Amino acid sequence: MAFDKYRRAYEIFKRLGRLDLQVRAAGRTGYVHFYLHRYDSARYYFREGFRISGILRDTAMLSNFEYSIGNVFKYENRLDSAYDYFNRAIAWSRDTTPEMRLLLADVYLEQNKVLDARRTLLKGLSVFKRRKDTAKICGAYLVLRQIEEKAGNREFALVAADSAHRYKDFLTDFVQENLISIRVVKAFVRSDYEKKKFKEANDGLR
User: Fold this and answer.
1) Which of 16, 74, 199, 200 has CA atoms 20 to 30 A from the CA of 31?
2) pLDDT reported for residue 157
3) What angle do CA 7, 13, 14 make, to 5 degrees?
4) What is the three-class DSSP state of 33?
5) Which tens digits make up the pLDDT trace of 64-123?
6) Does an H or E element contain 56, and which?
7) Given this model, what pLDDT does residue 126 score?
8) Is the pTM of this model over 0.70?
9) Residues 52-72, buried b or exposed e (16+ Cβ, 10 A)?
10) Can you tell me the distance from the alpha carbon of 3 to that of 173, in angstroms, rounded to the nearest whole number?
11) Residues contacting residue 163 through CB under 8 Å, at least 6 positions apart
């Protein structure tokens, strides 16, 4: 099982005193337990990862582990605790703030704090637009649609849904174009390869 593999790695790195490797093993072990719905075990390893990150003074990892613990609480429907941890994650790392804001907006929505959800979401969305991160813009508009629906703003909800679909269509077209380009390149490469093999076979007959 994957969690046994990562747990053993965690214990080995712990005995060796390799904090840099131990913290990564803690994160991976925590995520495996999380996806298996073993929330108490997931929380334990995420907290261990957070503790080690503090020793290493790695603020990005501190932020990631706070986020991970918050996510566990969110899936347990313990939204007040999730909200606290997501806010801590945002405070630790500005680099991950837009992604954290997207998740925090979802937590606000679960708590029926529509105004806070919209305000938080729009801050993240503006950063995604500056980055031109199409996938995250699409995801943000989908969350915005849910916020507007909950607020009873059907017209704004439809506008958000339309925006999400436009970005989704753009992503689909972009992926499709890239797949076609890859196939064309492969065809050219394959053609050159086949010509080379044919020449070698032909020379062998002489």
Assistant:
1) 16
2) 93
3) 85
4) helix
5) 899 899 999 989 999 889 989 988 887 876 555 687 788 788 878 878 889 999 999 999
6) helix 39-56
7) 93
8) no
9) bbeeeebbebbbbbbbbbbbb
10) 38
11) 141
Q: Are 23 and 7 in contact (CB under 8 A)?
A: no
Instruction: Take residue 124 and report the two structure tokens written for it.
Output: 């993240």
> For residues 86-101, b (16+ Cβ closer than 10 Å) or e, as one string?
bebbbebbeebbbbbb
**Mean pLDDT of all residues in 15-21:** 92
Phi, psi of 57 (to 5 degrees): 55, 45
Token readout for 141 is 């508009």
In angstroms, the CA 148 to CA 131 distance is 24
- CB 149, CB 175: distance < 8 Å: no
118 CB contacts (<8 Å, ≥6 apart)?
Answer: 105, 144, 147, 148, 151
The C-alpha angle 157, 131, 161, rounded to 5 degrees, equals 15
Taking residues 55-60, report their average pLDDT: 89
Q: With left for phi above 0 and alpha for psi between -120 and 50, is residue 38 left, alpha or beta?
A: beta
Instruction: Tell the residue number behind the tokens 């849904």, with chain if given.
Output: 161
For 152, the token pair is: 């009873």
Amino acid identity at 114: V
Written as one letter, the residue type at 130 is R
- Please state, in angstroms and rounded to a whole number, the distance separating the CA atoms of residues 32 and 63: 19
DSSP 57: T
CA torsion, ordered 156, 158, 160, 164, to nearest 10 deg: 180
